[in-house]
Design goal:
74% of the residues lie in helices and 0% in strands. It has 137 residues and is mostly helical.
């Protein structure tokens, strides 16, 4: 578990070399990141258009707008796609710049858990507004 400067002192050069290159889930991760980026393009256009069209809307106008099925579905898809894309990108950054494997693994798991909780909370909020569920009901 030690993450000091000499933590790979007993690792042979062959062992180090075998850990390099595209193996395991690298291709899947890369492809999923590209797919989420592509799906984000129309969803971001929809979100920006919606924000500008609802600029002077009241709360009632907004809840009526969000209760329309296509807006509810698009809002949930927007959350899922952007959160997944953010997790994938952040994971790559952590894997590239955190050298201690234990710390890197903990941070990646923590990031995934945090983003999952945030995404679920956001989707629940969207559904509550869309379905007209009030607080305390």
């Amino acid at each position: 578990m030690g993450c000091g400067k000499n933590n790979d002192k007993l690792v042979s050069p062959l062992r180090k070399a075998k850990g390099l290159g595209a193996s395991h889930s690298g291709t899947h991760h890369w492809m999923l990141q590209r797919i989420t980026a592509i799906t984000n393009i129309p969803l971001v256009f929809w979100a920006v258009y919606s924000i500008f069209s609802l600029q002077n809307a009241t709360y009632t106008d907004f809840t009526t707008w969000l209760s329309l099925p296509w807006n509810t579905v698009l809002a949930i898809l927007f959350v899922l796609s952007t959160f997944k894309h953010a997790v994938l990108g952040s994971q790559v950054i952590m894997e590239d710049y955190i050298s201690c494997s234990f710390l890197r693994r903990i941070k990646v798991y923590g990031l995934k858990l945090f983003m999952l909780a945030l995404g679920v909370a956001t989707i629940i909020a969207i559904l509550k507004i869309a379905l007209g569920v009030t607080a305390g009901a």
